[in-house]
Amino acid sequence: MTALDLPAPGTPLQFHWRKWDGSQHWRHECVYLGRDEWGDWFGQHAGSRSHRPGRDFLTEWGNVTLMSATGDFAFTRHVPGHRTRTYIDLAWDLRWKDGVPTGIDMDLDVVDRPAGEGVFIDDRDEWDEHREQYGYPVQVVAHLEALAQDLRDRVAGDMPPFDESVPGGWLARLAELAA
């Protein structure tokens, strides 16, 4: 999607996730915040709806999500106070499609919980199960396993965009939209 085709900052939309087989996964109500060198940013105000088959809730905390320019991860930073500082969904085919941010959730996640487990790679059991069930291609598996480790290291090293300054600016923009 070119810069001319992007929605205006503050535009409400839904972020669509699916699984490898095409089945529906998460849908997140959010607002478009803008684009920077890292990709496109979206925000969820507290009280926004997130749902998937079997689960539906309203967010208690605000957050911002980066749809990476590389198309293989979505990085979420929660407002201070949330038990999870960082949550990164590894993805495939993460992109704009017909004006909607969409991607395939590839199970592996990088999580940062400073008051608990620290930075770790989550959902390896789901990754192993779905890798076999869906028949993920070998090159996809190799890329995402290496990427998970790289992202874990970059989050632990507080490297941009996973530091405070980059998502902090987008959290401030989300707060401005709410005011």
Question: How would you sum up this structure in a few lines?
Answer:
With 179 residues, this protein is α+β, with helices and mostly antiparallel strands.
Briefly note the CATH topology name.
Answer: FomD barrel-like fold
Our count of helices gives 3
Number of strands: 10
Q: How far is it from the N-terminal to the C-terminal residue, by CA?
A: 29 Å
**In terms of per-residue confidence, which ranges show pLDDT below 50 for 5 or more consecutive residues?**
none
Order of helices and strands: EEEEEEEEEEHHH
Number of domains: 1
Reading side by side through the largest sheet, how are the strands ordered?
1-2-3-6-7-8-9
CATH class: Mainly Beta
- The CATH architecture comes to Beta Barrel
Q: Could you tell me the mean pLDDT?
A: 95
Radius of gyration: 16 Å
Main β-sheet: number of strands, strand sense, barrel status? Answer: 7 strands, mixed, barrel
Molecular shape: globular
> What would CATH call the homologous superfamily?
FomD-like
Structural class: alpha+beta
**Beta-strand fraction estimate:** 35-45%
How would you characterize the overall build of this protein?
- It contains three helices and ten strands.
- It has 179 residues and is of the alpha+beta class.
- The protein has a single domain, classed as FomD-like (FomD barrel-like fold).
- β2 and β3 form a beta hairpin.
- It starts with 11 loop residues before the first strand and ends with a helix.
- The model has no long low-confidence stretch (mean pLDDT 95).
